[in-house]
Amino acid sequence: MRALVCHRIADDFSGVEVRDVPLPEPGPDEVRVRVRAASVNFPDLLLTQGKYQLKLEPPFTPGMDFSGVVDKMGEGAEGPLRLGHDVAGGSRFGAFAEFVVVPADALQKKPPAMGFAEAAAYPAAYLTAYVALVRRANLQPGETLLVHGASGGVGLAAVDVGKLLGATVIATGASDEKLDLVVDYGADYAINVMQGFRDKVKTLTGGRGADVIFDPVGGDVFDESVRCIAFGGRLLVIGFTSGRIATVATNMPLIKGFSVVGVRAGEYGRQFPDKGRENVETIWDWAREGKTHPRVHASFQLEDALDAFAMLRDRKVVGKVVVTP
Fold first, then answer.
1. Are residue 82 and residue 113 in the same domain, yes or no?
2. From the CA atom positions of the chain, what is the Rg in Å?
3. Does residue 130 sit in the same domain as residue 117?
4. CA-to-CA distance for 210 and 162, rounded, in angstroms?
5. Could you give the CA distance from residue 104 to residue 106 in angstroms, rounded to a whole number?
6. What is the percent of the chain with per-residue pLDDT over 90, rounded to a whole number?
7. Are residues 50 and 17 in the same domain?
8. At what angle do helices 153-164 and 176-185 cross, to 10 degrees?
9. pLDDT at res. 283
10. How is 96-154 classified by DSSP, letter by letter?
11. Can you tell me the distance from the alpha carbon of 200 to that of 142, in angstroms, rounded to the nearest whole number?
12. What are the pLDDT digits (tens) for 234-252?
């Protein structure tokens, strides 16, 4: 089969190319899926650069989220899935290929109303948003949610989930054009961070500040967020796409009474398996009920996957980009 293989760690993705590799066989309790679409996440890029917390020795195939058709089932892979079923799911790597093998319980039936591209764009972004806003922040109806990097896949999912939970959503980003799309998508307000955001957030919240801040950016954005969070607020650390890991003087959360909360959606499920299953079931129930709306910005063939990587790296995406083997 064809797969996107990282054969050498490199900052510029030069160590990644499409190669012919052996067709994987499912083991006990595993399922092989013929991939119809796989979405690109920042960890995919970081894996090939050697900058992610999970370190893989080349050669390996990146790719976390995917959708496709059940092609073969391993011994003991029982349950509702059958050959030919349309499914979606996630893995820590391996999805940028014509076929991927995963545990049967890592798959969900694809909602009939959701296309393969949208289903591939869904799992990691919406699971992160759910764990962050529900499990870690306990976001309540009527609270104000400030979402940084709101045009990205995870940020846009947080906007979507925040509105579903009844929050007032303030979106930030560095492009007026992209922020216009985020407002059309459902955000109540949008702020271009190139002119700063602290004072505008304070104005929009009557001087109180945001109750919950969803921050996948880090760096200067985190620093300024500390200045516009409400007393009792929750500042969610999602990632560091700016490249700088910020620090905070501990007198700030003491005086302002806010919490800095780390979010790792996958690790949360591994630490609390029952809650992890509930998290996954909830977001897919939302999808089946049409309550959530993943946005696919662009689609690329497997041979052009590095163009998808570059589009994500260069912040040209509103929502997600997908690769179709």
1. yes
2. 20
3. no
4. 13
5. 5
6. 91
7. yes
8. 30
9. 97
10. SBSEEEEEGGGEEEPPTTS-HHHHHTSHHHHHHHHIIIIIIS---TT-EEEETTTTSHH
11. 19
12. 999 998 888 889 999 999 9
